[in-house]
Amino acid sequence: MNPKKLNILKTRLGRITTEYGGSTRNEPRHMAVDVANAPGTPIPALTDGVVTAVGKTNNGFGKVVQISDGKGGIQQYAHLMDSMVKPGMRLKRGQRFARMGDSGNAYSPSGGNASHVDVRFKDANGRPQDPTPYIRNIA
Ligand SMILES: [Zn+2]
After folding, report:
1. Per-residue model confidence as pLDDT tens digits over 70-94
2. What ranges do the domains of the chain cover?
3. What is the per-residue pLDDT across 125-137, written as a single tens digit (0 to 9) for each?
4. What is the Å distance from ligand 1's center to 110 Cα?
5. Is 39 helix (H, G, I), strand (E, B) or coil?
6. CATH class of the 3-137 domain in this structure
7. Half-sphere exposure (Cβ direction) of 6: Cα atoms closer than 13 Å
8. CA of residue 73 to ligand 1 center, whole Å
């Protein structure tokens, strides 16, 4: 066991089960971070933002919330149990807006579906960004 690795894996939001750029059953390069915790764990906004979309997708992400970061970037939080927001609502960093679940294809690295949130950041040009520093710093 590598102790450095263990530090990376544990955050207040939960345990990072797939790191940014890692590979999963769905994606050879996972340009997102998966954070696992108990179903119903409240999810905080990782930055200030405005909710742009709330809904259920058919592409494996299940229930999602998308938040604009105010600089042209979009953040997507997927596999939710449910959410308490609507498009147009403003969020402050740290504000709880949804609960963790296993909607969609919420595959766990250890097999089967498992409660986690897939956090996916894109910049104003649509390029994937690493959300890990935001996940690590959230209280
Ligand atoms: Zn994922």
Report:
1. 999 999 999 999 999 999 999 999 9
2. 3-137
3. 999 999 999 999 9
4. 13
5. coil
6. mainly beta
7. 3
8. 19
20 Cα: distance to centroid of ligand 1 (angstroms): 9
30 C-alpha vs ligand 1 centroid, how far in Å?
7
Give me the helices (H) in the chain, please.
Answer: 3-9, 132-137
Alpha-carbon distance 44 to 65, whole Å? 12
Q: How far is CA 45 from CA 22, 27, 82, 103, in A?
A: 23, 25, 14, 19
DSSP label at residue 102:
-
Structure tokens at 33: 């971070």
Can you give the pTM of this predicted structure?
0.91
How many angstroms separate the Cα of 5 from the Cα of each of 8, 9, 16, 19, 22?
5, 6, 10, 11, 14
Predicted confidence band at 111 (pLDDT cuts at 50, 70, 90)? confident
